[in-house]
TrEMBL record:
Top-level lineage group: Eukaryota
Gene3D superfamilies assigned to the protein according to its UniProt record, in alphabetical order: Acid Proteases
Protein's GO biological process: proteolysis
The protein's name: Eukaryotic aspartyl protease family protein
GO MF terms held by the record: aspartic-type endopeptidase activity
Family: Belongs to the peptidase A1 family.
Lineage per the UniProt record: Eukaryota, Viridiplantae, Streptophyta, Embryophyta, Tracheophyta
Leader peptide range in chain numbering: 1-20
PANTHER family: OS07G0533600 PROTEIN (PTHR47967:SF27), OS07G0603500 PROTEIN-RELATED (PTHR47967)
SUPFAM superfamilies tied to this protein: Acid proteases (SSF50630)
Amino acid sequence: MSHVHHLTILLFLLPVLVTCSLHGARVKLKYVDSTTDFSKSELIRRAKHRSLQRVSKLVSLVPSNNFSVACHASTASYVMDISIGTPPVLLSAILDTGSDLIWTQCNPCTACFAQPNPIFTPANSTTFSKIPCSVSLCKSLTKSTCNSECDYEYSYGDGSSTKGFMGYETFSFGADNSVKFPGIGFGCGTNNIGATDNSSGIVGMGRGALSLVSQLNVSKFSYCFNSIHNKGSSILLLGSWANMTSNISKSTPFMPNPHGSPMSSFYYLSLEGITVGETLLPIPPSVFQLTAEGSGGLIIDSGTRVTALEERAFIMVTRAFMSRIKLPQASGASLGLSLCFTLPDSGMKSVDIPKLIFHFDGADLDMPLENYIVEDTG
């Protein structure tokens, strides 16, 4: 008997984000699962699972200096190695453009999950100090209480949360910790729910006052993510190192954020339409429209691995692929995905896959095939 192969339609964006100081940095990133031996299908299943958890939480929110850092990736996230305190303590933290708070687990910890590095102990650092209730960073928290210190509570799109106290500390970057930034405000999490994918916490990169980019006062940053199947490092560039290169020919502006909305620190893009094959789908403009109250719209989010579309748009995209791929449908339950096809014995080379193009304000993103098609040979 011949093996049955499945062909899966999967919206799998690998974005480059550029926001636009005089100082800069270069940081390595890595995919959280890059040190594991998961199969391609399992990596995708894990990414989809966490992405949908995160999207569900995000939807519930809707009202009716020169240096370089390397990043590595997780089920749904990329991780950056930083050090905090004096002497420096190494941490692996998720890069998250969809939130603002910087935090890590701290001792004394009443509820902590397993992490790859030792838990940070503020009492062992000569540069740690607690943030008073009166300072603006404490007032920037949506959930904070004040007695003698600024206590915080923060939750995320995937259902995880952290509680603890706010402090100032020196953050160091680079293999030799040579690039140091004193006085960075962050959360010391002593009561934490949910794991953070082989990491010790989260580095918020959103537009709010608590984020790393806001506290460093850099006016632009950029990143380029490797595929989740690539074990190599990705790169985050901050400040003057984040300049656009001449070979980048397309760009799209961020949209103005809805003032005062729970979504106001997100990076909104103007998605104007979607083409499948040669056909621009008849999706009403209102489907992607961002309202003044903060409902609707589309965000680019480093913590959500698989693209999620509003239901009306998703149905149209699904039907367009169903009508153009002349193969029997198959179950995608093993991947947790809804639209799959049974491949012929000859494999992918005999299948005519239509193009998928996202039309943004001023730029058309013609998706590479591997960003939305997965061959599951298992």
